[in-house]
Write a structure and sequence with these properties.
Blueprint (H helix, E strand, L loop, with lengths): L10 E5 L3 H13 L3 E5 L5 H8 L3 E5 L7 H11 L4 E6 L4 H9 L4 E4 L4 H14 L6 H19 L4 H8 L3 H8 L7 H10 L12
Parallel strand pairs: 1-2, 1-3, 3-4, 4-5
Helix pairs in contact: 2-3
Length: 204
């Protein structure tokens, strides 16, 4: 039986002069399986876009040296297809209209809501034909649901391992959607969480 080749990672570029936001978003997105690079100097964005092969760029609007709209105009001269999400702590109708004129796919305000951002990302990926397969999406839903239920019950992975007789590393891989759980594993996990097996499928 041949295994499926891994899906190439979706490449995302974050451009924000705030290092803390770059680091936070990189951690968030890499945890979701994206390949992420950050830039805190927008003047180097053209070179990066020429050579980076990015699927999505997240641009901060207010940056010293060059604002996000200027960066967006320069990106469009090089790549008319890459998806761009604009972030700003200072939303205005004018900058929103200008962003849309240069085909930004979303205009989101800071501080951003993680779920809203993920939803925007999923929409972009679907439009670009880069969405996860239904199977990958299901693994992610199951993993997120198990993690949330475990945290609600204040259980560590070690405690879950004792309750289920499954290894900590397998449980961790299931939660991170890096491994698909067998029905018997899901049954043991559901019992340990005092849930029904169908509850682990979330809203899927």
């Amino acid at each position: 039986m041949t295994s499926q080749p891994p899906t190439p990672a979706v490449k995302i570029l974050i451009v924000d002069d705030d290092r803390a936001i770059c680091d936070y978003m990189q951690t968030l997105l890499e945890r979701d399986g994206y390949a992420v690079k950050t830039l805190s100097d927008p003047t180097t964005v053209e070179e990066e876009v020429k050579n980076g092969g990015y699927h999505l760029i997240v641009l901060d609007l207010m940056m010293p040296k060059m604002d996000g709209l200027e960066a967006l105009k320069r990106i469009r001269k090089i790549d008319s297809d890459v998806a761009v999400i604009i972030f700003t702590g200072y939303p205005t109708v004018e900058s929103a209209q200008e962003s849309m004129k240069h085909e930004a796919v979303r205009y989101l305000k800071k501080p951003f809501n993680v779920e809203e951002f993920r939803e925007a990302l999923d929409n972009v990926m679907r439009k670009k034909g880069l969405a996860r397969t239904p199977e990958e999406q299901l693994h992610k839903v199951i993993g997120d649901t198990i993690r949330n239920l475990r945290k609600e019950k204040d259980l560590t992975l070690k405690q879950m391992s004792r309750r289920t007789n499954l290894s900590v590393s397998l449980l961790s891989q299931i939660e991170r959607a890096e491994s698909s759980a067998s029905i018997s594993s899901l049954y043991k996990i559901a019992q340990a969480l005092e849930a029904r097996i169908q509850d682990l499928f979330g809203e899927y």
